[in-house]
């Protein structure tokens, strides 16, 4: 068991951030677990050709140890909406001593893979090469789906904020992950083969939801920046919702544009994101969203400077009935919610 002992100052410094780099690195190792590979199979199939053409001579061996990969690959995000470009700059600027010390941990007592020897001998030069590989993989495999990943992560953070408001820290941390528990001022990760205890000493904990880490929990006990990387709720929505298309009956009822928009909003998106995905003007999308919101088919909440829209249960039922043709079976449910 890993125990992180908390004081009041630590609880006050629990915070969330999303990390494009964590998504990127964990996406490369999903094949190590059969359940993870099955969950993300639609994504894996869609990017297989693009990734196969990449040269990842440094990146692949850095992720080859099933027990550990160097922390400099995933610098701690310093804000909720951390950008990939900022994380890549931090990776490129990793001090040479840090690179070497973390490469020393790779593979345990085994010799360093030959492909990584140049990185060990000349980190400053080779980090530029590594950054180019990471950028190439991002462009091919993660950037096309990042809007949907970010939407799910935003929904997760919003849900946790609601839990904190209604139930405090105990409720927030109580169901974050099956292997994690919070009790008696301590965070405990129930890993029977690990035995460690440390104090947070005012550093707090950074909580990083990550789609590709599902169903695992990653723990970084670095005393300067402890963090937990966990799988958010509704991971399957990322791939299932992407394939949904409105059926003809619902398009006849709402109009093709509004039906398509409603189908997109299984995850929270801003007006700008929806407009970009649908190839429509922001003004047109905003008008459609207003109509859908007044009809009770979508809801809106503010997140920073943006307003995020998401389909309601009523909207989901409406789409589901159109897809199955079972209109009568849903009527009573709709009438109860509308009434």
Secondary-structure map:
Elements: E1 2-5, H1 8-12, E2 15-16, H2 20-27, H3 34-39, H4 41-52, H5 59-62, H6 84-92, H7 96-103, H8 117-121, H9 123-142, H10 146-174, E3 180-183, E4 186-189, E5 196-199, E6 206-209, E7 217-220, E8 227-230, H11 237-240, H12 248-254, H13 256-264, E9 269-270, H14 271-278, H15 282-294, E10 298-303, E11 306-311, H16 313-324, H17 327-338
Parallel strand pairs: 1-5, 2-6, 6-8
Antiparallel strand pairs: 1-4, 3-4, 7-8, 9-11, 10-11
Q: What do you see in this structure?
A:
The protein has 339 residues and is of the alpha/beta class. The protein has two domains: 2-230, no CATH class; 244-338, Arc Repressor Mutant, subunit A. Helix content is 50%, strand content 13%. It has helices at 8-12, 20-27, 34-39, 41-52, 59-62, 84-92, 96-103, 117-121, 123-142, 146-174, 237-240, 248-254, 256-264, 271-278, 282-294, 313-324, 327-338; strands spanning 2-5, 15-16, 180-183, 186-189, 196-199, 206-209, 217-220, 227-230, 269-270, 298-303, 306-311. The strands form three sheets. The chain has a four-stranded mixed β-sheet with strand order 3-4-1-5. A four-stranded mixed β-sheet has the order 2-6-8-7. The protein has a three-stranded antiparallel β-sheet with strand order 9-11-10, with helices on both faces. Strand 10 (298-303) and strand 11 (306-311) form a beta hairpin. Helix 14 (271-278) packs across helix 15 and helix 16 packs antiparallel against helix 17. It is globular, with a radius of gyration of 22 Å. Mean pLDDT is 84; it is low at 327-339.
